[in-house]
Design brief:
The structure is a single chain. It contains 15 helices and five strands. β4 and β5 form a beta hairpin.
C-alpha cells in the first residue's frame, strides 16, 4: 500500500527529510544552472512532465509518442499554457538539446520527436532524489532497484505526470507557493529559502533563516535585481516572508503558513510518486515489463 500525503505530513521525520531534499535540489542546481533554470517555473516544469508522459505513455489516449501539435493540444486542454506558449517551449527544448526530431515523415505537421539522453538523465536524477526520500522514510529500496533498472522511468513517469497535472492541490498549493513558482527562477529561489530553515519558532510562527542578500540571489539564480525585489516584495506584502531589519541587509524570516504550503506540496507529490511505484511494481521487484520507447543522443 502506498504512502498517503496525510501519512507523510504526520511522520515526525518528514520535514527533516524535506529540508535535506531542498539542499540536494540546490546542489543539483549548482551543478548545472543552465538545465535547472529552464524548468524553474511551475508552468515550464508541467510542460516538461507532459512531454515525457506523452512520449513514454500516450497519456492523451493515443499510442506513445510526441509531436508539436499533439503536445500543444494536451497543454491547452489541461490549462497549463496557451497553444503558442507550448509550441515555443518545444522550440526551446529542441534548441537546448532536450528534444530531437526523428526522421522526417510525409506529414511535417506531425513530425515526431523524442527526448534526448541529456533530458532523460535529468529526469532520472529527479526521480532518484524523490525515491531516496521515500526510502529514508519507510526503509524501502526503491532507488536501489531504480538504479539497477533505469528503464523503469518509462513506466513510472506517465502516471506520475498525470497525477501531478490533474491534482488541483498540487497545481495550486497556496498563494505564496503559487507566487514563487509562477516566476522565472522563483521555484528554485523558494527551494533555497526553505533549505535555510534550522528551527521554527512556535511562538512567533516564523523561521528566521539568516541574512539573504539580493545580490546573492540574483547571481546564483540568474534573476535580475528588479525581478528579485518584485518577487520578494509581493511575498512581504502577503506576510509570508519579511526582514528583521533593513531589506536585503538583515535576516529574513519565513511564515509557518508559507512553510506548510511547501511541506504539503512535497507530501502530495511524494504520495503520487509512491502510488505510481506501487502500481507499476507493487512488492515484486522482478518481471518488470520492457519499455519500448527509448531516449537518444542530442546529436543526430
Amino acid at each position: 500500500m502506498s504512502l498517503s500525503a496525510k501519512e507523510l505530513v504526520q511522520d515526525p521525520k518528514f520535514f527533516t527529510e524535506i529540508l535535506d531534499y531542498t539542499r540536494e535540489i540546490i546542489s543539483t542546481y549548482d551543478e548545472n544552472q543552465r538545465v535547472c533554470s529552464v524548468f524553474a517555473s511551475q508552468q515550464r516544469w508541467l510542460m516538461a512532465l507532459a512531454g515525457f508522459a506523452l512520449y513514454c505513455g500516450g497519456i492523451d489516449g493515443e499510442p506513445p509518442g510526441i509531436h508539436a501539435n499533439r503536445f500543444a493540444n494536451y497543454i491547452v486542454e489541461h490549462e497549463i499554457a496557451s497553444h503558442n506558449t507550448a509550441l515555443s517551449f518545444i522550440q526551446e527544448m529542441l534548441a537546448f538539446g532536450f528534444l530531437r526530431y526523428l526522421p522526417v515523415t510525409s506529414d511535417r505537421r506531425t513530425r515526431p520527436m523524442q527526448p534526448t539522453e541529456e533530458a532523460a538523465m535529468q529526469l532520472a536524477k529527479w526521480m532518484s532524489i524523490h525515491l531516496s526520500v521515500l526510502d529514508r522514510l519507510d526503509g524501502g529500496k526503491r532507488n536501489a532497484l531504480f538504479s539497477k533498472k533505469p528503464e523503469l522511468i518509462g513506466l513510472l513517469q506517465p502516471p506520475i505526470s498525470v497525477g501531478i497535472i490533474e491534482n488541483d492541490d498540487l497545481r495550486n498549493p497556496g498563494e505564496t507557493f503559487d507566487l514563487f513558482t509562477g516566476a522565472n527562477s522563483g521555484g528554485i529561489i523558494m527551494d533555497y529559502l526553505i533549505s535555510r530553515i534550522v528551527t521554527i519558532n512556535t511562538t512567533t510562527q516564523k523561521a528566521v533563516i539568516g541574512p539573504v542578500a539580493f545580490t546573492d540571489i540574483c547571481n546564483r539564480f540568474l534573476i535580475s535585481r528588479t525581478n528579485a525585489k518584485r518577487l520578494m516584495n509581493k511575498a512581504i506584502n502577503m506576510q509570508s516572508v519579511g526582514w528583521t531589519g533593513s531589506p536585503g541587509r538583515s535576516q529574513l524570516w519565513l511564515s509557518t503558513a508559507f512553510i506548510e504550503e511547501y511541506r504539503n506540496y512535497q507530501a502530495g507529490k511524494l504520495a503520487i510518486i509512491d502510488a505510481a511505484w506501487q502500481t507499476v511494481l507493487g512488492t515484486r521487484p522482478v518481471g518488470v515489463p520492457r519499455v519500448k520507447q527509448s531516449f537518444t543522443s542530442a546529436v543526430p
